[in-house]
Amino acid sequence: MVGLQDHFFIASPGDSVESLPEHGGTNKIGAAFETPSGRRLINPKDYMDIISSTRPNLWASLADEVPAWVTEKRNRLSIDRTLKWLDDCLSLDQEKGASTLGAVVGGPNIEHRKKCATEVSMRNVSGFYLGGFGLGESIEERSALLNAVTNILPEEKIRFVSRLGLPEEVLQGVAAGIDLFDSTYIYHLTLGGFALVFPLDILGEAPEALLRNSSNDYTKINLHATIYRKDTSPIVDKCSCYTCQNHTRAYLNHLLNVHEMLAQILLEIHNTHHYLGFFRSIRRALKQEKFELFRERFMESRRVHLMEAVPYS
Amino acid sequence: MALQFEVVGRFNRARASKLTLPHYVVQTPMFMPVGTQGTIKGLTNSQLEDIGCQIILGNTYHLALRPGAELIDELGGLHKFMNWKRGLLTDSGGFQMVSLLHLADITEEGVTFQSPVDGKPMLLTPEESIQIQNKIGADIIMALDDVVRTTITGPRIEEAMYRTLRWMDRCIAAHKRPDAQNLFGIVQGGLDPVLRDICVRGLVERNLPGYAIGGLAGGEDKDSFWRVVAQCTAALPEDKPRYVMGVGYPLDIVVCSALGADMYDCVYPTRTARFGTALVPEGVLKLKHNAMASDERPIVSTCSCMVCKNYTRAYIHSLVTRDAMGSQLLSYHNLSYMMRLSKDLHMSIVEGRFPEYVRGFLRTQFPKGDVPQWVCNAMEVAGIDISSCCAPVPV
Predict the structure, then answer these.
(1) Does A1 touch chain B (CB under 8 A)?
(2) Which of A3, A59, A106, B387 is spaced 20 to 30 Å from B325 by Cα?
(3) What is the DSSP string of B296-322?
(4) What average pLDDT does the segment A191-214 reach?
């Protein structure tokens, strides 16, 4: 239907841009989401109807995703519901779990997370969706929770998490054993007129060269800024995306100023390309067994601008 | 003169040509999409090339405001700024000012108006318009004319026509790059054949690289419209291109081509796309209609554009009210349609089957045979027999 026949499709109940899970509205009947047409409640049967019509390659089971600050009682309830709905979805699934990512929840409680992970692993699923992240918990508390879950999950099955978008968060997820990510990071960058510029060849470049990167916060530039009015260079030198191969920062600056749709189209092309390139670098580092070094160097290069901002210390 | 115009096929008044410009060789009859601010809404250059766009229009008024003529010049001209490798045409800026600005006032000096940026009084003179267009660097530039809507009557039309000729001389004098840019004159004179004739002769005397027929496409009745076009194409030189500004609907383009015009521009295909309307051989298709929700056919089954090859009416229907991509896909299809129309006109003339093409076109648009009278009148003058397309008049 959408003309992307040679691409892989993964379905999960919420949409990170338009339909965020609303734990306050979820009840025993179904999971609630805030959507552009108001709050909607969806039960396992309706969800499986959608899954069987859209036929994704993989789909996450319906979950009661709660943020980190809910009460213990609410958290326990979310686990019970999520497991029940997983079983409901599986019983309605014509493929008997062959494309299912079982949802693992448990909020901020490590013991609950472990228990839920153990339970879900016992079902006949092909992979796991780690729910409830990216809903406002701090980056620091997240590592322990992710690792608690992935330590229990079987090695050979895929792990998917939503709403972790910043490069640092992706690296955190990869370190914990996550395989698939989706987020609105690119979407929001593009809407704001930002273009990603951080270096991708972290391991190749000498550390000093990285630290001398000339862009503003070493991550992204805002092409609305007047300094780009006459800048005839591409967004990123030697980037092979359509935008960088064909257009200049000056042209993008003009398109943004006159509110032309083409600005977002060209920015989205570059940002997607750059972000996917980041994942490619991660895979390469993993294959070379240098991921920890990669992560360390990347984090260092991101902190340099903060150090430079404090000259007298 | 920076162009070469070679007629490669004819049928009566209609002609197919090869027009060689500094940046590109184009085939006429040809439709030029309007890229107001240095971009065709939502389409990339490679998509425009895939569709077959040959020349696109830039609006001098908008570009002079943002990003500014100086900046464009400094960065190497509009072609380089947009990275568009084919033809560009800029209008003079006059029409935008008269139609967009309530407080525009036309004097012998030029067009005075209030700057939309800071409210200061500004003046666009013929010299200034040409200077800006020289900096933008398009292959074809338009003279600043005193354009008056055809719905107006009285001495204003005569005044505007003579002023257009006087401004033409000022434009010619101000033009610094005749070797790289072709300055077209614009025939004015409202719906008055006497005035139009004076204007045509005045412009032809100046021996310009090409001529435009202006002041139409503004609400006049169709019968008057085609007569002005017919009169001008009959009087303008055979060996120079003729551009009917602001046209338009596919039917209008077919009629004007039959009468001997070569080039057209209009915002219609892209603007109507943004309202969810697709151009089809039968006329238009409104994708917002409920019936489209379950229609799994492409917009046009015989269309080979990327949109018709990949998407159904149902899918586009679901997009048009919710997502910018809906209007983007429709713009892509509509422009493909116009380029296809241009190509078909050119090839049918070259291959000696122009009348058959016209008849086929009319039969598809008017299956009940209700071809409008003005079209019948125009085709008679064009020497094309369309009696087989018209239903017999009831006695």
Answers:
(1) yes
(2) A59
(3) -S-SSTT--SHHHHH--HHHHHHHHTT
(4) 76
Among all residues of chain B, which has the CA nearest to that of A262? B42
B304 is annotated as contributing to ligand binding: no
Q: Considering only alpha carbons, which residue of chain B is nearest residue A249?
A: B81
Of B110-119, B127-136, B164-173, B259-268, the least confident: B110-119
- The residue length of chain B stands at 395
CA distance A170 to A180: 10
Contact assessment for residue B11 and residue B259, using Cβ atoms and an 8 Å cutoff? no
Counting residues of chain A whose pLDDT is more than 70, the rounded percentage is: 92
What is the biggest distance separating any 2 CA atoms in chain A, rounded to whole angstroms?
66
Tokens of B93: 């800026």
Angle at A181 between CA A177 and CA A187, to 5 degrees: 150
Report the half-sphere exposure of A16 (CA within 13 A, side-chain side).
19
Give the residue among A75, A141, A304 at the shortest CA–CA distance from A212: A304
Contact in structure between B270 and B34 (CB atoms under 8 Å): yes
- pLDDT tier at A3 (50, 70, 90 boundaries)? confident
Q: Collect all residues with Cβ–Cβ distance below 8 Å to B155 and sequence separation of at least 6.
A: none
Residue B283 assigned to a binding site: no
> B214: distance to nearest CA of chain A, Å?
28
Of A3, A255, A260, the CB nearest to B311: A3
Instruction: Give the Cα separation of A287 and A281 in Å (integer).
Output: 10
Contact (CB<8Å) B37/A260:
yes
pLDDT digits (tens, 9 = 90+) for A276-287: 999 999 999 999
The residues of B annotated with a catalytic role in the active site are 91, 265
Within 8 A by CB and 6+ apart from B304, the residues are none
Phi first, then psi: what are they for A102, rounded to 5°?
Answer: -70, 130
What's the full length of chain A, in residues?
Answer: 313
* Residue ranges of chain B whose CB lies within 8 Å of a chain A CB: 37-39, 41-46, 62, 66-67, 71, 74-75, 81-83, 310-312, 315, 324, 328
What DSSP element (H or E) covers B18? strand B14-20
A227, A230, A247, A251, best to mutate vs chain B, most B CBs in 10 Å? A251
**A48: which 2 tokens?**
């499986």
Worst-scoring range by mean pLDDT, A1-15, A115-129, B332-346? A1-15
Instruction: Report the run of H or E that residue A257 belongs to, with start and end.
Output: helix A249-257
Preceding peptide of B68 cis, ω within 30° = no
